[in-house]
């Protein structure tokens, strides 16, 4: 018999929620690799075209996951206004997770673009050295109103998530008002409806959901994840029930993604079901949880941010030398392999040389606030393998 929601001991590290990040990053890489792969080996088109046009749903699941783990770690801190000091240190901790790599990649990209121009070449980046670059530096490129993705395109999603962090003191108290099973489930559906209704009206085209008006997408699914985490605290029956069918639920979600894409609908419509996978994994049971909790999956999940931030600049730069002209015919397969190898190498180097040192430096500059959790689920989930030798895992 499970403990009542009010007395149930909070969980620590949920390994599968770390592991799933790595696999979601693979999907995102595949989306951006698709046009290059199809050009190098046209025979891959039946595989890559559906991914290219429909697998963006992986980013939406990232938003659900983020809302879930951030709420788990900071629900008590932001139950009421904690003060500017605590809020600032929370934002600094979140920023330390990705900003060092972001700045390093952006600096390398600017340098590469300027260097290429000196030799008469052009690396496509779609931005200028003025407002577009400033929006990247200030993490506002994903707040809408842009004409295109510029510089490091995927940063729009981190920028949109950053917007959710800025609103957390307002969002969290509202989520905590959901005190029953049905209130949390209703909140989850309403949150999912924010992007679905918005884009049903204004359109699901790539421009709208990535740079034209992406905030309903990020805010809605972030709130959906927060509602799922609140459900864990107010009710045990639904999470335990969902946790028993994690694998079948994931298969069902994938089936809905395929179905919606085949009938001409946005795969975003599958998110109300797919998002429940996050809730199910939080129960830590079943074959999918075990697969996502392996050492390989954990390390893979840990470097997912670095992979996410480096893969598009790598693909754009590498395409200047790895293309159908230099890798014709069957050699195109080798070109695809080299592109994938470069994604892995760039991600790992960015993680080892920039992300971890940068994170340690940034967090050392600000002491942990007294009221903040000292070992929150959110922090453990996002930095799970910081000290593998000590954990013995």
Automatic annotation (TrEMBL):
<keyword id="KW-0812">Transmembrane</keyword>
<feature type="transmembrane region" description="Helical">
    <location>
        <begin position="303"/>
        <end position="324"/>
    </location>
</feature>
<keyword id="KW-0012">Acyltransferase</keyword>
<feature type="transmembrane region" description="Helical">
    <location>
        <begin position="98"/>
        <end position="119"/>
    </location>
</feature>
<dbReference type="InterPro" id="IPR050879">
    <property type="entry name" value="Acyltransferase_3"/>
</dbReference>
<feature type="domain" description="Acyltransferase 3">
    <location>
        <begin position="17"/>
        <end position="350"/>
    </location>
</feature>
<feature type="transmembrane region" description="Helical">
    <location>
        <begin position="265"/>
        <end position="282"/>
    </location>
</feature>
<protein>
    <submittedName>
        <fullName>Acyltransferase</fullName>
        <ecNumber>2.3.-.-</ecNumber>
    </submittedName>
</protein>
<keyword id="KW-0472">Membrane</keyword>
<dbReference type="Pfam" id="PF01757">
    <property type="entry name" value="Acyl_transf_3"/>
</dbReference>
<feature type="transmembrane region" description="Helical">
    <location>
        <begin position="55"/>
        <end position="77"/>
    </location>
</feature>
<feature type="transmembrane region" description="Helical">
    <location>
        <begin position="160"/>
        <end position="178"/>
    </location>
</feature>
<feature type="compositionally biased region" description="Basic and acidic residues">
    <location>
        <begin position="377"/>
        <end position="393"/>
    </location>
</feature>
<dbReference type="InterPro" id="IPR002656">
    <property type="entry name" value="Acyl_transf_3_dom"/>
</dbReference>
<keyword id="KW-1133">Transmembrane helix</keyword>
<keyword id="KW-0808">Transferase</keyword>
<feature type="region of interest" description="Disordered">
    <location>
        <begin position="370"/>
        <end position="393"/>
    </location>
</feature>
<feature type="transmembrane region" description="Helical">
    <location>
        <begin position="20"/>
        <end position="43"/>
    </location>
</feature>
<feature type="transmembrane region" description="Helical">
    <location>
        <begin position="185"/>
        <end position="204"/>
    </location>
</feature>
<feature type="transmembrane region" description="Helical">
    <location>
        <begin position="330"/>
        <end position="354"/>
    </location>
</feature>
<dbReference type="GO" id="GO:0016746">
    <property type="term" value="F:acyltransferase activity"/>
</dbReference>
């Amino acid at each position: 018999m499970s403990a009542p929601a009010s007395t149930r001991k909070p969980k620590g590290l949920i390994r599968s929620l770390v592991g799933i990040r790595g696999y979601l990053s693979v999907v995102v890489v595949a989306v951006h690799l698709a046009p290059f792969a199809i050009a190098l080996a046209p025979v891959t088109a039946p595989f890559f075209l559906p991914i290219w046009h429909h697998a963006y749903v992986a980013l939406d699941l990232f938003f659900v996951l983020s809302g879930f783990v951030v709420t788990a770690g900071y629900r008590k801190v932001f139950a009421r206004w904690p003060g500017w000091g605590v809020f600032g240190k929370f934002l600094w901790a979140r920023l330390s997770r990705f900003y060092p790599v972001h700045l390093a990649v952006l600096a390398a990209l600017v340098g590469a673009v300027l260097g290429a121009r000196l030799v008469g070449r052009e690396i496509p980046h779609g931005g200028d050295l003025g407002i577009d670059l400033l929006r990247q530096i200030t993490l506002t490129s994903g707040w809408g109103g842009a004409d295109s993705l510029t510089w490091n395109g995927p940063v729009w999603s981190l920028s949109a998530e950053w917007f959710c962090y800025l609103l957390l003191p307002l969002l969290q108290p509202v989520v905590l008002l959901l005190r029953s099973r049905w209130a949390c489930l209703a909140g989850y559906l309403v949150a999912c409806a924010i992007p679905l209704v918005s884009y049903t009206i204004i359109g699901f085209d790539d421009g709208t959901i990535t740079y034209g008006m992406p905030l309903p997408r990020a805010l809605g699914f972030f709130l959906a994840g927060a509602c799922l985490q609140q459900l864990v605290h107010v009710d045990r029956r639904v999470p335990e029930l969902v946790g028993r069918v994690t694998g079948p639920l994931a298969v069902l979600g994938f089936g809905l993604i395929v179905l919606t894409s085949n009938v001409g609908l946005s795969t975003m419509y599958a998110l109300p079901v797919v998002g429940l996978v996050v809730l199910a994994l939080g129960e830590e049971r079943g074959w999918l949880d075990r697969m996502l909790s392996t050492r390989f999956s954990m390390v893979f999940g840990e470097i997912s941010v670095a992979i996410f931030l480096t893969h598009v600049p790598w693909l754009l730069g590498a395409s200047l030398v790895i293309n159908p002209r230099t890798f014709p015919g069957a050699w195109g397969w080798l070109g695809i392999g080299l592109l994938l190898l470069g994604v892995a190498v760039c991600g790992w180097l960015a993680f080892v040389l920039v992300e971890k040192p940068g994170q340690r430096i940034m967090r050392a500059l600000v002491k942990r606030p007294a009221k903040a959790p000292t070992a929150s689920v959110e922090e453990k989930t996002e930095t799970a393998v910081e000290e593998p030798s000590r954990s013995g895992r």
